[in-house]
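Outer membrane protein with beta-barrel domain
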Amino acid sequence: MRSLLLFTFLSVCAHLSTAQKSEFPDNAIPNVVDSLYREDQFYIGLSFNLVTNQPSSYSQNGFSGGLHAGFIRDMPINKRRNLAIGVGLGVSTNTYNSNLFIGQDANGESIYSILDGDIDVDRNRFNTNLVEMPIQLRWRTSTPTEYTFWRIYTGIKLSYIYHYKATFKNESLNASQTNIPEVNRFQYAATLSLGHGSFNAFVQYNLNTLFNEDALIDLEQVNLQPIKFGIEFYIL
């Protein structure tokens, strides 16, 4: 009887030892919860570009779009770390297709005019390339172990247009203009992004215009104040 009890005890001990080794192998790396996590993120976005504050006869045609990408550093400001300030750096490229012609006269002065509807036009667009610095107030439902969450990010975006080009093309003329002193190189915009997981919707509204007060069409200011709608993806 004693032998049977001893055999049973040893069998149970051996089983528990084997199970423990299986559950915690020698080379296992324990999961550590990072209570000081950050939501540092790469981002990329696609937008549909509209404009407001335009001349009375101005109209967009075709597709006007944009692409932006960059990186944001996350700096939590509360103990739960679901509220943070984000500061980033990125680049953006944008296209505006419209009936606004931008050229230059014999004296090198800029010319702004609205193209007549009877004129055949293959291409008439204004392109901008910018370096951007987004500054965000970030609220989210994330936790140290939850990587798919709801977010609302709002803030401002400071940008500098480092390159621009106005292009016109039809059967008789192919011209581009890269010297437009009336362009407001520094741009300021309000931004809002909301969504769940990697997929987010965003809107961006420029607080100043693409052109300064010297850009005129028959004494009417050109202005052009972009507003963008699109989708944005955040990648940890």
